[in-house]
Amino acid sequence: MLILLLFVIIAILFIVKYYKNKKLNNNNIEPPGPLNLPFIGTLYLLLKDPHLAIQNLSFKYGKVMTLFFANVKTVVISDPNYLKEVFVNQSDKSTDRFLMGTAKLIGHEKDILFSNGDYWRNYRKILAMSFQKLKDHQGITKNVSEEAFKLSEAFDWYATSGQVVNPGPLFKMFTLNVIMELLYCDRSSYDLKEQHPILMALKLVEESLAVGNVVDLFPILSSFTKKYKDNLTQNLEAVWKYSQESIHMHREKLRKNPSKIDDLLDLFISEINNSANPEFYNDEGLYRVCSDLLLSGTETSSSTMSWLLLYLINNPNFQDKARSELLEAAGGKRRIELSEKNKTPFFNACIKEALRIRPVGALSLPRIASEDISCGPYTIEKGSQILMNVYGLAMDPTIWEEPEVFNPYRWLASDMNQSSYAFIPFGCGARICVGSNLAKDEIFLGVGNVLLNYIFGSVDGNPISDKGHFGIALQTCDYNVKLTKI
Ligand code: HEM
Asked: Which residue has its alpha carbon closest to ligand 1 atom 23?
């Protein structure tokens, strides 16, 4: 009897949900999608490797499809023209972020990653201008180059002792040091046993984020997840406090000598001071932006470096070719600088290919439809979450020849004619990644300098698995390498 009752309740919920979801105003058509179950929506199809599951679903349901993350109606776009239509032509309706509980906990809607409206626009403008000026600031870019050299030295011990090493944590330390130097005039040693307290806090924040979505999707679980939230808040507070101290120090220095610009935070504060409405920006906004940069600008770049090295190990010919090209560009020195970047087209193509084949932001960061949005023959209903299928686009055989093959030459072919919306590792439209140039410089200098100094191989001579896993980003599985000093 009980089972029958349960069955009837589920059937009723299902029918109500089905009709509610099918009904859009003005006879607009909802993008198709798989069976939407009560409570869990279509999550039953996304349990393992969501980027692969979504790619497969898009083969079946098309380049615009509707999924349900529990109750959250989600439209996934896997077509370059539709991406342009939605995120560029109708950017007034598609620029806001879809904000769940964890995002709000991180940014309090007072940062850049997870804020909307005029607040986001004003802070983003200042940050984008600061990054623009960073490019022309020789002194600051020199620090990134120095850090890349220290990264290369960190591999030395492994090469001389013959020990294998997992390059991931060293790459992570490199990207963290770059941000720490840009914001806090601080850095940490590459000795993985001696970690800076801020790195420990950041690591714990990242671990909490990896489980964040489940907690966000099922508010009913919130009483069980208090510990998770307390842990996240406690570690975020450590990052905020550290940022506040640095902001105070930077402000004091600039008050005494406004022209002494030594890092990104100096640029950011002086852009604020010189803006039309400096009173709009306060310390809370500043320290939340600092923690954004730590969160969004470290794992992303270091994971891409790990992917690039993995593919260069699996393709030793490409590794040799990239090294020879770097060596020639560096005039025979074992140290490459950003000023030589235009002399290394093949290595640059390898970086692009790594960003294509394993985009760490495989589904970008969610946006929300702030109004009904037209997308080809469909309508994306107001309030829906919208995802860009960055990974699916990169694996689309109608766009790329042999998409699963790491082939840097595809970027060098003179007839390369892909839509720029087919390759969107940094997202697209008004919220495109603000740190993309810094990321590309880090990858160039970080991987370029280690390649110039060591030959890398897998431990057993076999190719390393490029399957990866979907955590806070699309990351490589941990892998060890052996290396020989040149
Ligand atoms: C390979 C490295 C990186 C990748 C693949 C990447 C990817 C992305 C993606 C996909 C987005 C969302 C874009 C959208 O909504 O359309 C994003 C946003 C963002 N990224 Fe990156 N990113 C990388 C490195 C960095 C770095 C180094 C920084 C800064 C130090 C950074 C800072 C940001 C910020 C602040 C946003 C939010 C922009 C906004 O909401 O207006 N990222 N990134």
From this structure: 300
For a mutational test of ligand 1's pocket, the pick from 300, 357, 388, 421, i.e. the residue with the most ligand atoms closer than 8 A to its C-beta, is 300
Residue 171 pLDDT exceeds 80: yes
- The Cα-based distances of 406 to 180, 230, 390, 416 in angstroms read 33, 42, 17, 16
19 φ, ψ (degrees, to nearest 5): -70, -35
Is-contact 461 486, C-beta < 8 A?
no
Ligand 1, residue 473: give the atom nearest the CA: 5
Instruction: Please give the distance, rounded to the nearest whole angstrom, from the Cα atom of residue 355 to the centre of ligand 1.
Output: 13
Report pLDDT for 228.
76
Q: Mind listing the pLDDT tens digit for each residue in 436-472? A: 999 999 999 999 999 999 999 999 999 999 999 888 7
Ligand 1 mean position, distance from CA 338 (Å): 21
For the segment(s) 2-485, the CATH number from 3.30.1050.10, 1.10.630.10, 3.40.50.720, 1.20.970.10 is 1.10.630.10
| Residue 364 CB–ligand 1 contact under 6 Å | yes
Indicate whether residue 31 lines ligand 1 (CB < 6 A).
no
Whether 427 lines ligand 1, by a CB cut-off of 6 Å, is: yes
Q: Is residue 388 within 8 Å of 82, Cβ to Cβ?
A: no
ipTM tops 0.90: yes
* b/e burial code for range 28-66 (CB count within 10 A of at least 16 → b): eebbebbebbbebbbbebbeebbbbbbbebbeebbbbbb
70: left (phi over 0), alpha (psi -120 to 50) or beta: left
Q: Which residues contact 110 (CB under 8 A, 6 or more apart)?
A: 119, 284, 285, 288
331: left (phi over 0), alpha (psi -120 to 50) or beta: left
DSSP collapsed to 3 states, 421-466: HHCCCCCCHHHCCCCHHHHHHHHHHHHHHHHHHEEEEECCCCCCCC
